Amino acid sequence: MLVTLARFLDPWEAHVVCARLRADGLFAEVANDRMAIVDWPMAYALGGTQLQVKAEDIAEARAIFDAYRRGELDVEHDSANDDAHPEPACTCPPQGPVIPWGERALVIALFVLGGATFPTRTVGGLCATCGKTRPA
């Protein structure tokens, strides 16, 4: 029998935690995730996306989930490899990022076909002056 370990409003977070539980050898399933993706307001009515585990594994699953919530399972960034080959950062005065033509074409197509646009990157990107990556 499966019991609900946690409820999420973001179905993707539920899948991340489910994958972590499965990696630790526990049986875990995500319920109502497709409804949350297709009909987001209905997800609230259903109580969100449910992460379910076997009843006999609930104590171990709760310990892993609590460690996830505290941030103890975050992967540390390996800065030793980054220091060997640092990426040059742009030092030019701010002029706004360059939006690649592929993203511009996508935004134009979405506007023409659907009447709505999705936000493009406004932070980071390539510098118009030197072509290096702007810091985020």
From TrEMBL:
UniProt-listed InterPro entries: N-reg_PII-like_a/b
Name assigned to this protein: DUF2007 domain-containing protein
Species the sequence originates in: Noviluteimonas caseinilytica
